[in-house]
Amino acid sequence: MADIIDEANQEYDQHLTAAIANRAKPVPPSPICRNGDCGEQSLPGTSYCCKECREDAEKVERAKQQRKAA
Ligand SMILES: [Zn+2]
Fold it and tell me: In this model, does residue 6 exceed pLDDT 70?
């Protein structure tokens, strides 16, 4: 019986870990610039090819969220 309980606990742990991972998961950097249809290669470790693109995309993202909230 102990085995069954252990398995259940293990499964529970996995679900919990997955739930936490899903919530806290940082967006992985995109190899291609995320700014609109820029299409340039991103700088290593980032999702944008340049500072301007990142700022542009952040502006768009903020505008989207405001539209959602309104
Ligand atoms: Zn770009």
Answer: yes
CA of 44 to the centre of ligand 1 (A): 13
Structural domain harbouring 35: 2-69
Q: In the chain, how many domains are there?
A: 1
Q: What pLDDT, in 10s, does the model give residues 11-55? A: 888 887 877 777 766 778 999 999 999 999 999 999 999 999 999
pLDDT for the residue 23: 75
C-alpha 34 to ligand 1 mean position (Å)? 7
Q: Encoding tokens for residue 64? A: 């989207």
**CA–CA separation, 62 vs 59, rounded Å?**
5
Please give the backbone phi and psi of residue 32, each rounded to the nearest 5 degrees, phi first: -115, 140
